[in-house]
Amino acid sequence: MKIHEYQGKQIFARYGIPIPKGYPCLSAEEAGSAAARLIEETKVPVVVVKAQIHAGGRGKGGGVKVVKGGAEEAKAVAVKLLGMQLVTHQTGPEGQKVRRLYVEQGLDIARELYLGLVVDREKRRIAVMASTEGGVEIEKVAAETPEKILTEHVDPAVGLAGYQARKLAFGLRLGEGSPDPKLTVSEFVSIVTKLATLFEKEDCSLCEVNPLIVTKQGKVVALDAKLNFDDNASGRHKDWNELMDRDEEDPVELEAKEAGLSYVSLDGDIGCLVNGAGLAMATMDIIKHHGGTPANFLDVGGGATKEQVTKAFKMILTSPKVKGIFVNIFGGIMRCDVIAEGVVAATRELGLKVPLVVRLEGTNVEEGKRILATSGLRIEAADGMGDGAKRIVAAVRAA
Amino acid sequence: MAILVNKQTKVVVQGITGSAGSFHAKQCIAYGTQIVAGVTPHRGGEKFEAAGPNGAKVEVPVFDTVAEAVKRTGADTSCIFVPALGAADAILEAADAGCALVVCITEGIPVTDMIRVRRALDGRSVRLVGPNCPGVITPGACKIGIMPGHIHKVGRIGVVSRSGTLTYEAVGQLTALGLGQSTCVGIGGDPVGGLDFVDVLKLFNEDGDTEAVMMMGEIGGNAEERAAAFIKAHMKKPVAGFIAGATAPPGKRMGHAGAIISGGQGTASDKIKALEAAGVRVAPSPAEMAVTLRSLL
């Protein structure tokens, strides 16, 4: 799950990580008065108006504006930003609509750094990465100049040790150019240590501060906050419900998630309903292998009920891009009769206007096949997943 | 011989009174697995009833703790069906009670929990399979997990995979060609888990009952690349493979918590390239997994 920058910063503040003063806004009027308040409180005439969307690269895409002309100008900038389709390298060409803004105090930036925490799957630890190349795409730094990224791993038994944070600080040559090198290093050490604690306590899957800045006064401040949460931990974080911005989620994927299904929209025209993630991916692959294109990834899981299968099949039936459907089931725990009942129930309700190929294997397979055969629906039965994929690709081509 | 589990394996099922635990414990008992104990806190003293392969009634004693179950029954292996937020604790309990093998079926354990578990298991001889996996089966001898037993056949092909149903697909294809399996290991679809491809390949490499290996990987992480490096340097037996997710878009999690291409890393094409360079024959489509393996024999 992703959250907005301003929400991430509110969590940073709870952990004592320094952030600029700022206010989230939903309208241009609010942005104007937020700017006036910030200028009044900080005695600095510069504010920054930042579009809040769940994608990186907002600055380059034109979603972050520095305002030096006071509250009126901030309001005018907000008018332009709100409602715009912000396109960044992470949004895709259609962009993401801006519905929320964050107005923040301007700071005198001396240095921009990168700080990121991720799960290192190979080391099976949280990795803390820091780089002098702040404010740019870290993937680019990793590919072109990997030596500029410093990494420390957190031992879960003791947390991030002080020496590790100092290694990063001195590795970044943080003291150089600072009016107070000791202060700069100690602030950095404190921030990194707090972030490592936050990452674990808040069940993050990603935590990025890009940039983390050193001000001309030598203070260290998180100018950005990108937090992703581990969905598996939602059961112990009741506050995540409030942090979720439904406008930022794909409505179909959200609907699926709430029904306990795993769904990802794709660009093709063959809808797939499969049990198990690996088999679902393999089903997409085999459709492509035979010259078709999958419209979705859909895993109904191991223990789906008839209602969940009905829901899943309806989602495929109602998708306008779907020109054919391939149901591929290898039932281990999943019973084939439950799948068949769900498919029939959804089709009875919505009708079936596209070709449907079903491959069933596993528990209660005879009963499943009988339900489909006696349903009166035009269903092509497949013998194996290769045969099924060939059949659905051919049927879509012929239609 | 086979690997990890055999006819002598004595299993304690954690979460045996839950719906998934009781259903699958019964299936395992019916297959012939020696399920000698169950554990559910506050349910100690109860009996879990099931039917063995010959239909005879089997009574499994239920204990409050794994330590007690191990002490009283001599269980050496645990199979975990405990809900996600309690599963990390269940793994630690099994390891602490002295189980040599812990098979965790549970899906949805938070990754920070698994990071702590892995740290706690460092330096111990206990082996963890999973989580988020179908389990381990040595056909005809011992089934620990949720895989359908009847699709398997006794034989000499080792199977290792990150996925559940894709493993069944591969096993179904192998059995249809008359190629039985020595042991099938589902290592699970999570980013941080127990045994990885390299650990299982090492075991198959040394196993006298295994003649060739079928491995199924998927997008995300670099476990397949590490497996490729091991195969190139050490593997004495032919390996066939398949990688799921060639058509998966970057940045999207495909069902499994670990199945995600991030920052250009973990693509199917990189994995296939690495495996092929190590001499693994990679199936062109998931319908040709067993045929590809057979071409190596």
Keywords, separated by commas or semicolons:
heterodimer, A: 399 residues, alpha+beta, six-stranded antiparallel beta sheet, four-stranded antiparallel beta sheet, 13 helices, 18 strands, 38% helix, elongated, B: 297 residues, alpha/beta, Rossmann fold, seven-stranded mixed beta sheet, 9 helices, 32% helix
Task: Put the structure in a nutshell.
The complex is a heterodimer of chains A (399) and B (297). Chain A has 399 residues and is of the alpha+beta class.
Helical fraction of chain B equals 25-40%
User: What's the CATH superfamily of the largest domain in chain B, by name?
Assistant: Succinyl-CoA synthetase domains
Mean pLDDT of chain A: 92
Query: Helix fraction of chain A?
Result: 25-40%
Strand content of chain A: 15-25%
* Helix-strand pattern of chain B: EHEEEHEHEHEEEEHEHEHEHEH
Task: List the uncertain runs of chain B.
Answer: none
Q: Can you describe what's shown?
A:
The complex is a heterodimer of chains A (399) and B (297). Chain A is of the alpha+beta class. In chain A, α11 (336-350) runs parallel beside α12 (365-373). In chain A, a hairpin with a 4-residue loop joins β10 (204-215) and β11. The longest helix of chain A has 21 residues, at 181-201. Chain A has 13 helices and 18 strands. Chain B is α/β, with parallel strands linked by helices and 297 residues long. Chain B has two domains: 10-129, Rossmann fold (3-Layer(aba) Sandwich), CATH 3.40.50.720; 147-294, Rossmann fold (3-Layer(aba) Sandwich), CATH 3.40.50.261. Helix content of chain B is 32%, strand content 24%. In chain B, the strands form two sheets. A seven-stranded mixed β-sheet of chain B has the order 3-4-2-1-5-6-7, with helices on both faces. In chain B, β12 (212-218), α7 and β13 (239-244) form a beta-alpha-beta unit. The model of chain B has no long low-confidence stretch (mean pLDDT 95). At the A-B interface, α4, α9 and α13 of A face α1, α4 and α5 of B.
